[in-house]
């Protein structure tokens, strides 16, 4: 007793946590017992249910930090409850529903609505379990000595699992949750003589609740297993469909390959038969040629000795012909040199002819100029007529001279070409004659 007094003096927050834990135990136990004896779905007006929400509100408010707002200090449990949707994805729906409720104006009203919806979903214990695990995030909203930061919070979460046996149908939309006053009614939890005599019934109810909790937990695990099995069956069906399609394609490919194999075997048989036929024919031809070669071998030896003698003679004759060919090649080079000299002479004459044509153009220009001056002066016209007649005579002489030069160039070019063609023809005839001689000698 002395130790408890000292503990209360030293750590009043521990006493508060213990009292809240005991109240939570009494509230949850009384709610479960009354709900099972009630035997139907609970609504918002059920007193033990209202007391449960009041006790939960006090537990969540314990050790809550005071946040400064624009006008005043704010102390609400909506902040940590709003954090649940980030930790538990299934809580996004309940948070969105609370925000969309039109009658709620305060964060406390939203927190009360959130607790009622979580109870109807039978996931209040799951949501709060995710919250108390993240102590580092809770430290932003609670003091270090708060109930949610200590072991008492984990105990309360474990007690909330028993509420899954309760079916509640709560109307949150039309209820005024902002202005409700949360006061704990301790008269509900005071024991009477009837409660002492009903221990056996409580034990039976506890056993039934334990069985129901076990069955619900087992059902939840089975549902998750069934969903995973359904997903696996779907994936197996898809893979089976793909395998069936691949099997059909593989069968078609096997049939095509068998047909190609049969065709290749038939072609191989035909090729083998043709090859054997050709080999037999070639074998007969080789035997005939071998007999012919044996008979002609003796005559070939005699012909070889005679051909060797003729080869020596032809080699000597070929040497003589090559010497004569060298002489002809030197003559051809001399003729080519003469043709180059003739071409040079022709080019010089062509340059002379070009100069004469330029002089003729100058004379024509002078003639035109004199003709223009003739129109200006009649006296000068007579003199210029004489000059023009002289110039025309000179022009005719130059033209005649040019024609003679062109004719001489053409004759010279014709003679050169004739000489070259005759020389080439002689050389070609001589080469053909030598080639015939060499060919006759080789034969």
Please render the helix and strand layout as text.
Layout: H1 2-10, H2 12-38, H3 47-61, E1 67-68, E2 73-74, H4 78-82, H5 84-87, H6 92-100, H7 107-121, H8 124-133, H9 135-138, H10 151-160, H11 193-197, H12 199-376, H13 378-442
Antiparallel strand pairs: 1-2
Could you explain how this protein is built, in words?
80% of the residues lie in helices and 1% in strands. By secondary structure, the protein is mainly α. It has a two-stranded antiparallel sheet with strand order 1-2. It has helices at residues 2-10, 12-38, 47-61, 78-82, 84-87, 92-100, 107-121, 124-133, 135-138, 151-160, 193-197, 199-376, 378-442; strands at residues 67-68, 73-74. The radius of gyration is 65 Å and the shape is elongated.
What letter string, H or E per element, gives the SSE order? HHHEEHHHHHHHHHH
Question: Hey, roughly how much beta strand do the residues contain?
Answer: under 5%
Instruction: Write out the strand line-up for the largest beta sheet, numbering strands in chain order.
Output: 1-2
The helix tally amounts to: 13
Largest sheet: 2 strands, antiparallel
Give the overall shape.
Answer: elongated
Helix content: over 70%
The secondary-structure class comes to: mainly alpha
Distance between the termini: 148 Å
Q: What is the radius of gyration computed over CA atoms, rounded to a whole number of angstroms?
A: 65 Å
Task: Output mean pLDDT.
Answer: 80
In terms of per-residue confidence, which ranges show pLDDT below 50 for 5 or more consecutive residues?
1-9
* Strands, count: 2
